[in-house]
Structure formats: structure tokens, C-alpha cells
Amino acid sequence: MAAVPARKRLLILGSTGSIGTQALDVVRNHREEYDVVALAAARNGELLAAQAEEFGVPLARARLCADTPEVLTELASAPEVDVVLNAVVGFAGLLADARGRSGTARPSRSPTRRA
User: What is the pTM of this model?
Assistant: First the structure.
């Protein structure tokens, strides 16, 4: 008997934008393969709440982040996340991706100067 593949636990950063909503369309059609465990959006709280309800994401893991971009890093480094889809534009998205991959949300350090 073939083993049942594990469901991928998915975080979507930028879930209310064009790429994020399209990603959720894919998940809708492949629910047996994915569990959405966290969502982040810039400002569209109404759509974010609807997405969280539809995909069973706890409100603590459905976060607005326009004024607090560190939320992206926090979510991306959560141990219950297998796959991060980063659809956030600009430096905030880049930072979340880099720090999420390292598994830590530590602040960046400036290089040391040598005399």
C-alpha cells in the first residue's frame, strides 16, 4: 500500500494581493495537499479575515503587517510552517524571506569595521 503524502503547511505573505489570492485559488482546488496555517496582508483586514475563516487559520496567525513588518519575519520563522509563499513587495518581503529561512527573527547586524 502506498504511503499517504504529508500535507504541506503553508504560509502566504501578501495573501490579499493578486499573487496571494491566486495562490489561495490553487489551495482551494488542492485542499488534500495543503493546510494554510498563517496569512499576512498589508491593510485589507476584511479580506484577510474572510480568508482566515475560509481556510481555518486562527486569528493569531492572520495578521496585518503594513505598520509592523516584523510580523512577516515572525510568521515566516514559525516552526509549524513548511512552505512560505512570499508575495510581499519590496524590502519588507525580502527581509522576511531571509530571516524566515534562517529560522530566527533576530535584528540585522551591521558589519564590523577594521582599522
Answer: 0.79
